[in-house]
Amino acid sequence: MVKRFKRGYSILRSRFGGMDVMKKAERCISCGVPLTEVGDVSFYCPNCGKVLIGRCHHCRDQSVLYVCPECGFEGP
Ligand SMILES: [Zn+2]
Ligand SMILES: [Zn+2]
């Protein structure tokens, strides 16, 4: 199962390879909208570095607070 998953993942990467170096979160952590638009950002929690946090351009704009589900870190 694990091997199959890894192979599928590498195929996916090679198809989009070179375009995006960074992983992207699927949803905004604050409001939950899917991240598709330009201006959205994804980054790992600055405190624990374990959780990929996504923010939509709206929540970035409004400096909406987010809470890391792993360590409870709050911030924009
Ligand atoms: Zn948002
Ligand atoms: Zn964290």
Describe it for me?
With 76 residues, the chain is of the alpha+beta class. The protein has one domain (21-75). It is 28% helix and 16% strand. It has two helices and four strands. The strands form two sheets. A two-stranded antiparallel sheet has the order 1-2. Strand 3 (66-67) and strand 4 form a beta hairpin. The termini are far apart. The model is unreliable at 16-20 (pLDDT under 50). It binds zinc ion (2 copies). One zinc ion binds at residues 28, 30-31, 33, 55-56, 58-59.
Architecture blueprint of SSEs:
Blueprint (H helix, E strand, L loop, with lengths): L1 H15 L24 E4 L7 E4 L1 H6 L3 E2 L6 E2 L1
Antiparallel strand pairs: 1-2, 3-4
Provide a brief overview of the structure.
This protein has about 80 residues and is an alpha+beta fold. It has helices at about 1-15, 55-60; strands at about 40-45, 50-55, 65, 75.
Structural class comes to alpha+beta
Strand order of the largest sheet: 1-2
Bound molecules: zinc ion
Termini distance? 37 Å
Element order: H for helix, E for strand: HEEHEE
Shape: globular
Fraction of residues in helices?
25-40%
Task: Return Rg in Å.
Answer: 14 Å
Q: Could you describe the largest sheet, including whether it forms a barrel?
A: 2 strands, antiparallel
The amount of beta strand, in percent, is 15-25%
Number of helices: 2
Number of domains: 1
Q: Look at the structure and give the mean pLDDT.
A: 81
Oligomer kind: single chain
Tell how many strands the DSSP assignment holds.
4
Uncertain ranges: 16-20
